[in-house]
Amino acid sequence: MSSKTTVNHNHQNKIAVINDMTGFGRCSLAASIPIISRLGVQCCSLPTAILSNHTGFPSYFMDDYTRHFQAYADEWKKLDLRFQGILTGFLGSEEQFRMVEQFLEEFTTPGTVVCVDPVMGDYGKTYGSYTEQMCQAMRRLVRHAHIITPNLTEACILTGTPYHEGHWSQTQLTDLLLALREMGPEKIVITGINQGQFVANLCSVEDADPIIIRQHHIGQQRSGVGDVFSSIIIADAVNGIEFIRSVRRASAFVKKCIKRSVELDIPATDGLCFEELLGKLQKGNEKKHE
C-alpha cells in the first residue's frame, strides 16, 4: 500500500509581490525581485499586467492580467504557499482591488506582514487612470496593511487633506500622519517630502512620536524609486529589522542609486541604476557598517 508524500514548499521565508511586470524601466516587479532576493527572502511575483516599458514613456505595450489573477492565485493555494510578507503596488482597476482584498483574506496569516504601497499619484494629482472609486478602494485596502509607504500626494488623497506646493510645517505633516494612523496601519512612512536641499521621509510607529529622516536632494525624480524603497521595507520587516532603521537603510540606498544614475547619465524614465550597488545592500543583521 503506497502512501502519498506531502511536499512542503514553506521552509524558506517568502514575500508575495502583487504588481505589474515591466520589461524596461526598472520599476514594479523588475525592481522588487532583485531587491528582495538580495535581502535573503524569496520573492514570489503575482503580475497585474505585463508591460514592455512603463507608462511614463511616450508609448508602450501592455497586456492586462486581471483575467488571469484568480487562476494564478488558485495555483498557489493548491501548493499551500505561506507568505511571511505581502507587498502590493500599482493596481489598475476596481476589479484588481477586489481580487487583492480576496488574496489578502486567503493568504494572510497571524505572522504575515502586509505592506501597501498606495501608488495613486504625484505632484498633488492622481494618475490619469485613477478614478474616485479606485481611490475609495485604496482606502479600504490600506486598512488591511501593517505598513504603508505613501508619498505626500498619496497621503493627502488617502486622508482627504488638501495638497499644496511648497513648505509643509511640522504640525501639518504630523496631522497628516495622525490621519493615516486612524486608518489602521501600525507603521507609516510618508516619502519624498521636499524640504529645499533635503528630501525627507516622515515615519510613525504605532503611538510613538513621529521621526523625520532626511537625505540631501540629488538629481531629478525617477521612476521606480518607490518600488525599490518599499521592497527594502517589506524584506526588512520579514527579516526582523526595526522599522525606523529600515527606513534609514532604504533612504540611504536610494540616494546611492540616484547618485550613480546621475553619474552614468541614465535618463529619469529608465529608473534607478541599482544593479552595481546591490552588493552594498545587506540583510541588515550583519555586523558591518552600511
Oligomer: single chain
Report the principal-axis shape: globular
- What fraction, in percent, of the residue positions are helical? 25-40%
Number of DSSP helical runs? 8
Distance between the ends? 57 Å
Structural class: alpha/beta
CATH superfamily: Ribokinase
CATH topology: UDP-N-acetylmuramoyl-L-alanine:D-glutamate ligase
Low-confidence stretches: none
How many extended strands?
A: 11
Record the strand order, biggest sheet. 3-2-1-4-5-8-9-10-11
Q: Give the SSE string.
A: EHEEHEHEEEHEHHEEEHH
Brief sketch in words of this structure:
By secondary structure, the protein is α/β, with parallel strands linked by helices. It has helices at 29-38, 66-78, 94-107, 132-142, 152-159, 170-181, 225-238, 243-263, and strands at residues 14-24, 42-53, 62-64, 85-88, 113-116, 121-122, 125-126, 147-148, 187-195, 198-205, 211-216.
